[in-house]
UniProtKB/TrEMBL annotation:
Start and end residues of each Amine oxidase domain: 3-426
Name of the molecule in the record: Amine oxidoreductase
GO molecular function: oxidoreductase activity
PANTHER family registered for this protein in UniProt: BLR3003 PROTEIN (PTHR42923:SF47), PROTOPORPHYRINOGEN OXIDASE (PTHR42923)
Pfam families documented for this protein: Amino_oxidase
Annotated source species: Mycolicibacterium madagascariense
Gene3D superfamilies: FAD/NAD(P)-binding domain
Amino acid sequence: MWLAEAGHDVTLLERRGHLGGRTHAMRAERVDDLPDNGQHVIASGYEHLFRYLTSIGTRQFVAFPATSTLRWPDGRKVVVRTTGFGAVRQLFGVHPDAGVHDRLRAARATVRLGWQALHPPADLGDLTTEQWFTRVGMPSPAREALWDWLALGIAAEPVSQGSAKVFAKVLATGFRMGVRHRRAITIGYPTVDLDTLLVSGALSFFAAHGVRVRYRAVARRIRIEGGAVTGVQLTDGTVVPADGVVCAVPNSNVGGLLDDLPEHAEIDSAADTLSYTPIVSTNLYLDRPLGTESAFEGLIGGTGVIDEVFDRQLMHGRSTERGWLYCLTTSGAYEQIHRTSDAIVAEQLALLRRYYPAARDAEVLEAQVVKMPRATFSQVVGMDSLRPPQRTSVPSLVLAGDWTATDWSATMESAAQSASAAVELLLARKYEA
Ligand SMILES: Cc1cc2nc3c(=O)[nH]c(=O)nc-3n(C[C@H](O)[C@H](O)[C@H](O)COP(=O)(O)OP(=O)(O)OC[C@H]3O[C@@H](n4cnc5c(N)ncnc54)[C@H](O)[C@@H]3O)c2cc1C
């Protein structure tokens, strides 16, 4: 889109029959609904993603709720503020069991965490997030009610494995943006399905700007001759001629594509090492409401990995004629990914029953389990420094995608920021020439 806006003639090659990549809607036939492949949240600091949404006219479909609810299995709950001064105060401890001493310790540890995020100690890259929390003295109630949850969400890895450096980088980005815009970064969500948010508007834009989209066009090798790109060879043997290429495939798909690039071995090796982490999403249609109070709620002490319940009725204003839809996403789902869909549905229902009295007699009308073994690249200790830059040694070939080097972890914003950087590089080349 941004290349077309700048006057370039653009062809988009997509190996699947639809656009959207890892963010797309799916049909649920039995209940005639359009849930997503996985619930996606959006931080208010996602400035490149917002630029994209503004370009396609869907910026208004992101909402930032003022509160969220944390629940414990024994029925206790805390409503936390997610915006304004209340959100900053929350950083110092929201756990109902936290005494004055814990809150003071949490405040001190939070200040240390912030300082070290902005001025990273030399060995931060060798630490897991858990080791970092221990080092700054973060008390366990504050970890349980906030920090572990936040770190899991950002790195999609359990804190015992997640890289402190990745978490620190995103915290630092958040602090800097908060200072720049004089507003704390907060978490929001789409109020429409992901196709409406990200794809439909793009298709209209493409039609209006003459961007060609070729579906089921699998790129095999980017052709380079005499230090310049000449085209993209597809798996069917044909070559799409081009004088500039943005290679925006995930790290798990890049093998072979860059073989003509002098530094391809280094990039391929980084892509392999970055590997992947699994996410399992479950869309549950129940015959009754759960009694949620916030659009998304955190379940503390659940299965030990992220447990969040997204209430699509509150988020999308969807009709409950065909049941109530609740979306659950498990990041770092190393064990769950090997279970059957039925077992996952049973496990998630049992989880809901521990937290919501209304779930005890609830029946599942329809369930979808989306297992994504390669959901994102792995953000465990030592990985961050491997992410390749967008610039390559061939000026007409640039890289993009969430796994390339950006200010963010594996997120939509990382994908959008890398795309922005890639486009700038190609446009600068044009002016240099
Ligand atoms: C379940 C789940 C939950 C998530 N939750 C969040 C969240 O809450 N917030 C957030 O910001 N991010 C979240 N993410 C991460 C986010 O979805 C990704 O980081 C982002 O979508 C990556 O975008 P991308 O463009 O880099 O890659 P992709 O979306 O994977 O796009 C790459 C495209 O390239 C195509 N392709 C691959 N190989 C070829 C080839 N050889 N030829 C042609 N086409 C090819 C693919 O088909 C795909 O369409 C989540 C991801 C998952 C899976």
